[in-house]
Amino acid sequence: MGWFRKKNDPQDANELLRRYNEAEAARLAGMTGGSAPTAARPSFSASPTTAEFTVEDVFTITGRGLVATGTVSSGTVRVGDAAAILRGAEQIGVTEIGGIEMFRKKASEASEGTMAGLLLRSKVDVARGDVIRTHASA
Length: 138
Fold this sequence. Notes:
Blueprint: H1 13-31, E1 50-61, E2 65-74, E3 76-78, E4 82-87, E5 90-102, E6 105-107, E7 109-111, E8 115-120, E9 131-135
Antiparallel strand pairs: 1-2, 1-9, 2-8, 3-7, 4-5, 4-9, 5-6, 5-8
């Protein structure tokens, strides 16, 4: 009897997505006390001497140290630059860039849009999604 019953037409995908986005916005507004949700990545003041590197993965190489891989999102990262590790808007550590590698080639700098691996001189807490903000050493 139920085999040939006409089923309701599935919801339009755009309508379904709109409803989901509204529900998610309401959930986030409830979590933040009714204020508008904040951006996942805060904007930092940029100057010609700073650069930002978004971390994709972190691992340790025996005999070398801690390596953070990812993409340079702004500026130019150079070997010897002082670096602050930012998680959200909070600074969680300070280190120095000890080396840069791009697809098995050593480099002295990596510019905006480049995927690279940064060798960090000191052991710091770095995780996926963190931002490494460098300041050129004088």
